[in-house]
Design goal:
Order of helices and strands: EHEHHEHEHH
Shape: globular
Oligomer: single chain
GO biological process, one term: riboflavin biosynthetic process
CATH superfamily: Lumazine/riboflavin synthase
Strand content: 5-15%
Enzyme class: transferase
Distance between the termini: 37 Å
CATH class: Alpha Beta
Catalytic activity: (2S)-2-hydroxy-3-oxobutyl phosphate + 5-amino-6-(D-ribitylamino)uracil = 6,7-dimethyl-8-(1-D-ribityl)lumazine + phosphate + 2 H2O + H(+)
Radius of gyration: 17 Å
Bound molecules: ligand DLZ
Keywords: Riboflavin biosynthesis, Transferase
CATH architecture: 3-Layer(aba) Sandwich
Largest sheet: 4 strands, parallel
Helix content: 40-55%
Pathway: Cofactor biosynthesis; riboflavin biosynthesis; riboflavin from 2-hydroxy-3-oxobutyl phosphate and 5-amino-6-(D-ribitylamino)uracil: step 1/2
Number of strands: 4
Length: 204
């Protein structure tokens, strides 16, 4: 029987026009590496070009909201100053009509160069918090969660919540696909980034 949990049936969205950022914390790096790798696999499977996936890191999860905010605004500046990227971004925005919402993007893959300078279509924030003896876990989880939500609403860019809040090492490992039958949540985050990147315009 299919599991009750999870994102439901996955539709295939075409990510070949997208530019996606990944920013990850370095705390608990073995688990982080597996999650980032899972996210990148899903992005590649959806057609996102390798050169259009930009990966940055920060020390810990507490730094994620600031990093996402800077990554996105820097990509906007880069896009307007490089000319072609700005034009490309405008072109892409106007190319997706409201009726495209659940369909794959209709733009030909060749429309986006292998290495784009357009603003990010979505950013995945990846962190792993494992509960310890102090209150760090609670404070960082709360601050990072609120901060990531604030950034996506303030900036108008989809931010995928790739923050594991595990009560034990084992819980974190299982959610990073490390172990028999374990599911890598990073794969879901990659798919979520593509879906939101495709859908982010034309909600009217
Ligand atoms: C300090 C701290 C602790 C105790 N635990 C974690 C953790 O489990 N996962 C994580 O991503 N970061 C942790 N950090 C680091 C903070 O997120 C942050 O990097 C520092 O407090 C510096 O601002």
């Amino acid at each position: 029987m299919a599991s009750l949990k999870g994102p439901g049936e996955a539709k295939a969205y075409d990510g070949s026009n997208l530019r996606i950022g990944i920013v990850h914390a370095r705390w608990n790096s073995a688990i982080i590496d597996a999650l980032v790798s899972g996210a990148k696999q899903s992005l590649a499977a959806a057609g996102v070009k390798e050169d259009n996936i930009v990966v940055q890191s920060v020390p810990g999860s507490y730094e994620l909201p600031f990093a996402v905010q800077r990554m996105y605004t820097a990509s906007q500046i880069q896009s307007t100053s490089s000319g072609s990227g700005g034009a490309l971004a405008t072109d892409l925005l106007s190319s997706t009509s409201a009726t495209d919402l659940t369909a794959s993007s209709t733009k030909p893959a060749s429309a986006v160069p292998a290495s784009s300078t357009a603003p990010f279509d979505a950013i995945i924030a990846v962190g792993v918090l494992i509960k310890g003896e102090t209150m760090h876990f609670e404070y960082i989880a709360e601050a990072a969660s609120q901060g990531l939500m604030r950034v996506q609403l303030d900036q108008g860019v989809p931010v995928v919540f790739g923050l594991l809040t595990a009560l034990s090492d084992e819980q974190a490992k299982v959610r990073a696909g490390l172990g028999d039958g374990a599911h890598n949540h990073g794969e879901d985050w990659g798919r979520a980034a593509v879906e939101l990147g495709v859908k982010k315009v034309g909600w009217a």
